[in-house]
């Protein structure tokens, strides 16, 4: 969850983790609990990552990058689509015929989002910010991920202020539910 380094190093490490999880999903042949556990693992990582980006990365993009408002809005729209897919996956049984197309849709959306961030947004942010600013953002991202929800909440507000106020409470509730059910422990 927390890798260290500046914001770009931190988020790229998250991207590599998710890519590895997607590889495991593609290689999986069965259904049942093993698949559910991996879907939960992917969901936890993606939700924490998204919340942290919405709280700190995108406001920094808006502030420091020319055309940052447009870029941030696009990235938040990407997150919204992913969060809706995650919510559908949460409700879909692993033996349901809809699970494979949903997983493929998730992987396609996330892969396109990652490619866009790493090819466009990250280089622009790196040019616009000092090394200290990038390091500070990395610290903020790590703290946000530690407090973030672990389940999709597509109806939750995506503004940074609302997210900073509501995410820790939702995160606490989600982590309590996870503890009771054993979710995310595999």
Radius of gyration: 16 Å
Summarize the helix and strand pattern as letters.
Answer: HHHHHH
Q: Could you give the count of β-strands?
A: 0
Oligomer: single chain
Share of helix, binned: over 70%
Mean pLDDT, to the nearest integer, reads 85
State the low-pLDDT regions, or none: 175-180
Shape: elongated
**Distance linking N and C termini:** 15 Å
Number of helices: 6
Strand fraction equals under 5%
Largest sheet: none
What does this molecule look like?
- By secondary structure, the chain is mainly alpha-helical.
- It has six helices and no strands.
- The chain has helices at 7-27, 33-64, 68-91, 99-128, 131-147, 160-181.
- The longest helix has 32 residues, at 33-64.
Features:
single chain; 186 residues; mainly alpha; 6 helices; 0% strand; elongated
Compose a concise summary of this entry.
The chain is an all-alpha fold. It contains six helices and no strands.
Provide the fold topology:
Elements lengths: L6 H21 L5 H32 L3 H24 L7 H30 L2 H17 L12 H22 L5
